[in-house]
Q: What sequence folds into this?
C-alpha cells in the first residue's frame, strides 16, 4: 500500500455538517485489515428515497446485484459498507453473504432487509464471512450519530491515501438544505480490485424517480468522466439518499423532474459529485499529476468523450506526463487510435495555454523550454481541437508512474 | 533506451538465406542516431508484386499514405526504410519529404518513384530532412547484395533490443521457394512513437491480388493479435513482396486465390508472420514475461478477440503478471469491462494448466503456492472459458514493468 499521502490531496478536509435524517457509526469487523475501521453502518429517517448508478461491468459483485434489486423500490432505511473484501466473483456464497449482511443490518437498525443497501470493496474471489458482522453491527447501531463524517470516509478506504469528503448547501423554497458525500477512490492494492464507491446524502425531500433522473445526468460529466487506468471495477457503486427531513422546515416534496425549484439543487448535486470525482483522480495509485483532457470540435459529444478517453487511458501519454514531457506526438497517436472521425491536418494540440501543434504539424512558435516548464505543474490541462464539429468533452485522469506498477505488481516482493 | 537485450529474446538469430530477386544494403544517413545504420535500401527484380497492410490510425504518417497509394498498383521496384524519424504529423512538409525520398531512391535504383515503397520510424512531428538521403542512397545502391539479413533487421530498429528475423521454405510445383522477413517492434523511446514495421519477401510468383488476400487473412491472427500497451502507431506498416524469381526454376505464376498449389505457401507465410509477431511481443518495452491470452467459449470469434484484448491491455492484469501474482480477480474485471456477452457464473479461468476459477467462484482445488510457482515462468498462458458459445481467439502481450515506465517517462531525468 502506498504509505504517503498523494501530493495532489486537498490541503485540508472540508467541515461536513450533519445531514438531518442521517446517522452513522463505524467499527472494526476485522474483515481483512487490522487496527483500522472497516465497516460503516448508516441509518436513514423513515421515508428516505434513494437513487443509484452501478458498474457497467458484465461481472458485477454480489452487493452490486443486491443494490440494483433494491433500487427498483427506491426506498432506503440503512446502508452497510465494508472494506477489505469485495464479495465479488464469489458465486452462490456471495449472494448468501449479502443476504445475511442485510439481515444482520436490518436487525441492528430495526428495519426490513430489503431496505438495507450494501457495498463491499477489497479482495475479489474470497468468500466474505458475513457472520463477522453479527455482533459488530448491533453494537455499532448503539453508537449512531450525525458525525464526524471523516470517520465514515475513512472506514470505506482501501488504498486511498486520504479520505474523500464534499459538502454544500443550497436553497429550496428559500430553506437551506444540505448535500454531503463521501467517496473511496480507485486505489488498488493487490489482490484488491480498483473500486469507486460514493455515497451522497441530502435532507431535501425528493422522489426517487426525480433523484434518479438528476443522478443519471450528473454522473456522465463527473464520476463517469474519470479514468485512472481504464480498468472498470466489478463493484463501482454510487448511491444518493434523500431523507426528506427538510420537510419539517417547510420544504415541499419534489415529485416532478421538471420542478423549477430543483434547478439550483441539480447544479449543487453535480458540483458535489464533481468535487468527489476529482478527489478520486487526485488519489489514483502513484499519481503525481492530475491531468484534465479537453477535446473540442469533435463531430459529437460522444465522439469527443471517446477521443478524450483514448488519450486519458494511453499508457504512452500518461508516462510522458509522468516524465514531464510535452509529448504531443503521443496525443496525436491517441487521437488516431480512438477510431473516431479526426483529420491529422485539422488537429491542434495545446498543453495549458501553449499551442504545440496546429493544423497537422508542429506549431511554428513551438518552444520546447516553455512547454517543458509548464509540464512541471501539478495539474496539466491537455486540449485537443479536432476541427470537425462542435462536440466537446473533458475527462480527468492522472499520470502513470513507477509507483503505480509498484503498488499493483510489487506487493509480493 | 533499454540497454540490455530482452530476457525473452530468441537464444540465437536464424540463418536467413538470400531471396532470389531481392538485393539490399544499409547505410548511416545520420537522421537521428549516431554510429549506427539508420537507412535500408532494397531493390526488387522486375515484375515484383506487393501487398500490404497499414495502421488503422486516423492520423497516419506521410509514408503510410504514400504506400497506400502505391499499393493500388501492386508493383514494386524498391523499398527505402529509415529509422530515427517517423515523418508523422509533419503535414505538407512530410508529403514533400516522402516524394523527395522516393525520387532519390528511384534515381539510385534506376526505376520509377511510383514503384519505390517507403517506411519511416522514429520521432514524430519533426520534419524529415530527405535531402540527407541524396548522396547516401546512390552510394548504397552500389553495394546491393543478397545478405546478410541481420544488417537489414538492425538498420530499422529503434528501441528494439534485438533484431527480428524469420525464414522458411515451402514447395510450389515441387520447387522449393523461400519466405523470409524482418520486423521492428513496439519499442519506444520518447519522443519516438511505438511503431511496428515488417517486410516479408518471397521468390514465389504470386499476383498482387492473391498476395493481398493471403495477407489480409493471415494478419488477423498474427500481427493484429499482438498488443504491447494498446497504443496504435501512426506508422505501422507490413509489406509482402513476391519477386517471382522462382519462375526460372519452373514455378508457374499463381493468379487465382483458390489455387490449390498455394495451400502450403499460405500456411508457411502465416507461420513466418506469427514468428515475427511473437518476436515483437517478446521485445515489448520493459517486458520480462510473454503473455498468451486465450479466450474460448465466447459468442463469436470477434467477441473472443475483444475480451482477449481487454485482458491483454489491462494495466492491472499486466502489473499482476509482472509481480508474478496469479491475480485472476483482475482477469474477471477485464472480462467484465470488455462489454461483450459474459456471465460471471459461467466463467472459468486457468493460468497454464491450473484452473484457478470455475463457474463464477474460486476453484475448490485452488492452491496459491502451485499457481505462484507457475507465475515464475517466462511465458504465461492465461485461458478464459466464457461458456456461452464457440468463439475463440488468442492474443499475445507482455507484462507491465517499472522498466516500461522508465523507458517511456524517464528519459528526461
A:
Amino acid at each position: 500500500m502506498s504509505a504517503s499521502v498523494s501530493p495532489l490531496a486537498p490541503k485540508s478536509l472540508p467541515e461536513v455538517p450533519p445531514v438531518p435524517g442521517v446517522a452513522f457509526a463505524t467499527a472494526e469487523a476485522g474483515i481483512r485489515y487490522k487496527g483500522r475501521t472497516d465497516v460503516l453502518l448508516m441509518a436513514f429517517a423513515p421515508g428516505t428515497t434513494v437513487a443509484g448508478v452501478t458498474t457497467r461491468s458484465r461481472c458485477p459483485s454480489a452487493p452490486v446485484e443486491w443494490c440494483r434489486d433494491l433500487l427498483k423500490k427506491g426506498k432506503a432505511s440503512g446502508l452497510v459498507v465494508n472494506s477489505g473484501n469485495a464479495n465479488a466473483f464469489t458465486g452462490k456464497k456471495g449472494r448468501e453473504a449479502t443476504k445475511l449482511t442485510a439481515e444482520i443490518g436490518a436487525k441492528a437498525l430495526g428495519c426490513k432487509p430489503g431496505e438495507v443497501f450494501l457495498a463491499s470493496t477489497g479482495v475479489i474471489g474470497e468468500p466474505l464471512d458475513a457472520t463477522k458482522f453479527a455482533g459488530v453491527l448491533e453494537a455499532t447501531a448503539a453508537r449512531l450519530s450525525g458525525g464526524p463524517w471523516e470517520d465514515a470516509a475513512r472506514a470505506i478506504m482501501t488504498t486511498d491515501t486520504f479520505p474523500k469528503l464534499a459538502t454544500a448547501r443550497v436553497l429550496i423554497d428559500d430553506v437551506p438544505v444540505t448535500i454531503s458525500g463521501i467517496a473511496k477512490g480507485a486505489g488498488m492494492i493487490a489482490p484488491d480490485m480498483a473500486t469507486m464507491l460514493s455515497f451522497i446524502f441530502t435532507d431535501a425531500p425528493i422522489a426517487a424517480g426525480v433523484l434518479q433522473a438528476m443522478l443519471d445526468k450528473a454522473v456522465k460529466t463527473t464520476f463517469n468522466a474519470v479514468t485512472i487506468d481504464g480498468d472498470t471495477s466489478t463493484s463501482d457503486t454510487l448511491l444518493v439518499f434523500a431523507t426528506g427531513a427538510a420537510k419539517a422546515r417547510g420544504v415541499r416534496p419534489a415529485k416532478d423532474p421538471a420542478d423549477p425549484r430543483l434547478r439550483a439543487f441539480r447544479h449543487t448535486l453535480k458540483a458535489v459529485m464533481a468535487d468527489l470525482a476529482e478527489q478520486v483522480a487526485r488519489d489514483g495509485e502513484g499519481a503525481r499529476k492530475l491531468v484534465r483532457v479537453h477535446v473540442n470540435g469533435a463531430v459529437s459529444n460522444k465522439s469527443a468523450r471517446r477521443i478524450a478517453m483514448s488519450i486519458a487511458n494511453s499508457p504512452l501519454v500518461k508516462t510522458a506526463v509522468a516524465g514531464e514531457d510535452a509529448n504531443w506526438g503521443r496525443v496525436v497517436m491517441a487521437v488516431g487510435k480512438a477510431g473516431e472521425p479526426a483529420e491529422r491536418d485539422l488537429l491542434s494540440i495545446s498543453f495549458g495555454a501553449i499551442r504545440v501543434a496546429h493544423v497537422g504539424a508542429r506549431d511554428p512558435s513551438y518552444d520546447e523550454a516553455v512547454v517543458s516548464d509548464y509540464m512541471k505543474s501539478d495539474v496539466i490541462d491537455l486540449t485537443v481541437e479536432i476541427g470537425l464539429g462542435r462536440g466537446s468533452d473533458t475527462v480527468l485522469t492522472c499520470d502513470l508512474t513507477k509507483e503505480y506498477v509498484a503498488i499493483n505488481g510489487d506487493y509480493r516482493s
About this structure: Chain B touches chain A through 77 residues (CB under 8 Å). The radius of gyration of chain B is 22 Å.
